[in-house]
Please model this.
Amino acid sequence: MEDNRNILLEVKHLKTSFFTQAGEVKAVDDVSYYIKKGEIIAVVGESGCGKSVTQMSVMQLVQSPPGKIVGGEVIFEGQNLLEYDRNSPEMRAVRGAGIAMIFQEPMTSLNPVFKIGTQLSEVIMIHKKVDKKTAWEEGIKALEAVGIPDAKSRMENYPFQMSGGMRQRVLIAIAVACGSKLIIADEPTTALDVTTQAQVMELLQSLVKTYGTSILMVTHNLGLVTRYAERVYVMYAGKVIESGTTEDILMHPVHPYTKGLLNSVPKLDASDEERLVAIKGQPPRLSELPSYCAFYPRCPYACEECKQGYPILEEVGPNEHFCACWMKNKEVAHAE
Amino acid sequence: MTSYIIKRVLASIAVIFIVSIFVFSIIHLLPGDPVVMALGLETPMEDIERVREEHHLNDPLPQQYITWIVEMFHGDFGDSLIEFRPVADIIKERLPRTLAIGIPAFVLGILLGLLIGIVSAVRRGKAIDQTLTFFTTLSIGTPQFWIGMLLLYLFSIKLHWFPMRNLVMPGESILGYLRSATLPIICSCLQMMGSISRQTRSNMLEVISQDYIRTARANGISEKTIVYKHALKNALIPVVTVIGMNLRNIIAGAVLIENIFSIPGIGVTMTNAINNRDYWVLQGCVLIVSFIAVFGNLVVDILYGYIDPRIREARG
Model:
């Protein structure tokens, strides 16, 4: 295993369920992953696969009720965060300062009726225990650090006076100002145009170099994964179904779902005859999961053996390449 | 912000001008000659002519309007045709009584409404929310005159806790005021309290599910600060509208309340003026109500700009 001292966050067997009238919906089912200091990892999957809920669970921000973390551990810097009450001061101290979160929608992620500076300095005041004036000064520095020109006057702006990319930078600035060790970026660039996407990603990457921040990207954009992530976790129906280094996942995927995901990405060097292959069917409803592999109904390699139960994650290669599939060792079945 | 306020004030002055034309037209739009209606059909022609002259009713309309405006700026609203004394005196005497009920009811309505709305939103679905929702819905749905009569029947006639009539002004006796004003204030604030609390509750619930609230939580801001600062300021924007619309009810609502609780204020004066065709009194009262309505809208607009920078930008 990895050197433990280097591990910043380790999630072990995390389970989050939503208790609805239709019964228990297992949004996150026995998910484990870790992230080292100064590392960029990605969690990939279709909409509704539980990738965002996993991150909200780490922050204990899942709406409750109906959501509830029903098991597992979230060990951040040696401390199990799930031992803290969700509204406790200890948990709040972690949010924003220890682990910061950046969301998909920069346009709506800032409060429309407060100045940028007010929102920024408020969080700084809470976490750094400084007075208003100092917090404001540090806010200006943070805006400068994330590359916002004319930071001093920008502090006086309201969110509606800024572009999407600028707002995303402001949210990153909050993380920078509070010295966050981990930034969880939940589809950070989905709502931005392509050039802005690149700028925001370069900014996040520069934080890793400058401050040794770790970054966890939640995304369905495999382009971002290739470019920035060192390791990848692929999620399907609330479970991690494959994990490994970016190279292993992209070049030597083992799970049929991962393969399907990769095949559905357009390639520049593809010949004209080659068509995009979509994964057939819809992601399963989490309330109606079978007692066996959840990908079974959509899997091109499905066979009777697959119905023997949930496949567990097993090592399929060097460099911690894991995969949860009954057919993973059957090279024949996976021949292209 | 300053230019925004100036623009709002100018717009209000324009509205007041238009309103004044409408109020001025009351006399000329209503069927029948006001003087004949007031003095009776058997009045000799000379008397009618004399009164018409006195009230400048024979002048051309634009001139009448200007005379009327100029007189008003001098505090002269004309004389009552029934009480034979200046309308300004009548208003001066009765407005304080109306305000003594209307303003406390207005303030109480806002405070209770906000409080109930926030509590219901924060405790959504819990027993306290359901109880409060039940009572606020009831308070909106029940006609004011019926609540008023119930209150009188229960607390004045049966329990003898409060007097049935004779409002005592706070200047005369604080205790007497509290005793005599409690029932009308409660009766008059219930409806407003209900509508403000419903509005606050639904806005709070909507705001609390917004992305920026999630951001605030993810940044470690305490739940209390989130509710009372981040969420409330956003939720207040539509509530301000309801408050502004209720400002004119301080006087307009008095029509009902004062008749139920026998308070000789503007409301009763207005109903009597209509019944007795006392045009100048009616004109004066309507003008006061209109001014307050316009002023209320002005306050709302300024509050909007203060709360929501986007509005300031768009309309400034």
Summary: Chain A has two domains: 1-39+50-86+230-267+277-336, 96-219. Chain A touches chain B at residues 59, 61, 87, 92-97, 100-101, 103, 105, 108-115, 122-123, 126-127, 158, 160-161, 171, 174, 178 (CB under 8 Å). The CA atoms of residues 129 and 135 of chain A lie 9 Å apart.
